């Protein structure tokens, strides 16, 4: 859906991001609702259920799978958080100084004191960081005024959209479902969608010549960055590969893509309905009732719609209730 430009003509890139986030919610929060409809799988699910409950020694197969999943989750999350801490430590060890020119330009565009603008000779490309103490980091080089403005707007839009938080949450989801290849596809496409949303937000009110200048700034920053930055906690222009960058160029250059708020709200409601509907059915096995355990002797009755003496059973039950209540109705008490 993201790679189809026609979809962006009908709705906004924010709607596409919302779809990805709802997919992540559906994975992260599995629960049953009272109105859920059971979809029975017959022999297929029964075979899977029997296979998972097969015992190997004193351990069942599903217990073995659970242990493998849990160990993999711990290793994956530990590796990610260790990588994140190394990245943050690397930024803390960098010699950072305040960029007075960049700070004045950003304060004039978005308001004073919202985000700090710093620069460091250890950086190759602009980036942003921080969940609470938000900062924009620039390389120690001289930028033109327009070039610096585009860079600051791009990084500030990442911070305003909470893209760093979304990337961390998706990375945690990948750590939990490390065995599922689809979550890595979700992560890759969500990162690209957030970059496209950022590009369209910055260039929304720019003229064609200014859009071309913005794309030139992005290309220049990408070339200067060298290899992509793999630190997952940082939203950086250098993260994208050349193919992804080309896709962003093509979408920004498409003047027909308009981000309409009404369409986004309507599409968001539709996606929310689909999310709720996805909880409305449950896939599970189906088993016939164990007749041998129910009908233990000749005096046991199996009540169903096919019972020929069903009406006699109810009449007998009603008569028994009346007989039991009769003494109490007469004001007497008997031990039956």
In short:
The protein is α/β, with parallel strands linked by helices and 336 residues long. The protein has helices at residues 5-10, 13-28, 43-52, 61-93, 100-110, 145-160, 163-176, 181-202, 208-225, 242-253, 261-278, 291-294, 310-329; strands at residues 37-40, 55-56, 59-60, 97-98, 116-120, 127-129, 135-139, 235-236, 281-284.
Structure in words:
The model is unreliable at 227-240 and 331-336 (pLDDT under 50). Helix content is 60%, strand content 9%. The strands form three sheets. The chain has a five-stranded mixed beta sheet with strand order 4-5-7-6-8. The chain has one domain (5-284). It has helices at 5-10, 13-28, 43-52, 61-93, 100-110, 145-160, 163-176, 181-202, 208-225, 242-253, 261-278, 291-294, 310-329; strands spanning 37-40, 55-56, 59-60, 97-98, 116-120, 127-129, 135-139, 235-236, 281-284. The protein is α/β, with parallel strands linked by helices and 336 residues long. It has 13 helices and nine strands.
